[in-house]
Amino acid sequence: MRIFVSLASYCDPVLPFTLERAVATAADASRLHFGVVDQSPAGSPRVAAPGRARLSLVQVDARDARGPCWARAIAMSLHDGEDWFLQLDSHMDFDPGWDDVLVSQALALGAPRRPLVISSYPDAFVFENGQPVRRPTTSGVLAQVVQAGAAFAPDHPVLTFVATPVDSVQALPGIHVGAGCLFAPGRIVQDVPYDPWLYFHGEEQAMALRLYTRGWDLFHMPGLPVHHLYNDPNAGAPPRPLHWDAEQEAQRSTSWWSFEQRARARLAALVAGADLGVYGLGGARSLADFAAFSGIDYAARSIAPKAFAPFAP
Prior knowledge:
The chain is α/β, with parallel strands linked by helices.
């Protein structure tokens, strides 16, 4: 079974490490196809093909980048019929045999026949003396919940989510997805293509809603075999600029805030049921169904207690 790995990178010095580690730790690197969108300053070195794996590369001058969702949509378009789709951030590390683990986890839940997504905000790793070191928070499941104290703003529906440890050895149903770690059958590319008109904030809400209303089930898994390098000054890695940093802004003619405003309006249109074509809601389940399932009611702009702690004893 072939696996497509989507990597959208913005001026990320850890991208080569991510590719190298994904290949080195895979049970079968020959079945991997990396779709990489490398947004770096003009003249930056070209990303190298990762060993036995296939690489499809799109290089974009960082000055022309239009945000994470735009880059993820381009990366998704490089999918070439692979059986499985894995979307990751460009600063990741992997457990040995991570490809077999993810496929086995999905098969155990009924995929690929059952449309489902395995996703979360993964456990962290850092570099110590140049070597990756795990910083796990749980041996169970990292489940995504609405951040304590969050509420709907009067002018947009963007909410903040966090990962919370749950003591479970079983997969747990999810109400949210993590854009930096999303594994699914390959038909997600056709069924729920990434929306390039989103920016960053709200992208995961939009994806979770579109998946859920199109009949896809969301899961958080124990033993997730990928790990994330968070943008922490103590992580032991070179600093990673963000698209909205002032220094990055100074090189572009279009402000990140214009992309952010458009994205907020886009999410508001989605939850209002606007006709967004393939980027809109599905008909398998309704927003009311999602409210009952998750506790997040977009129509009423209310959040029930279970959205903050769906797995509380």
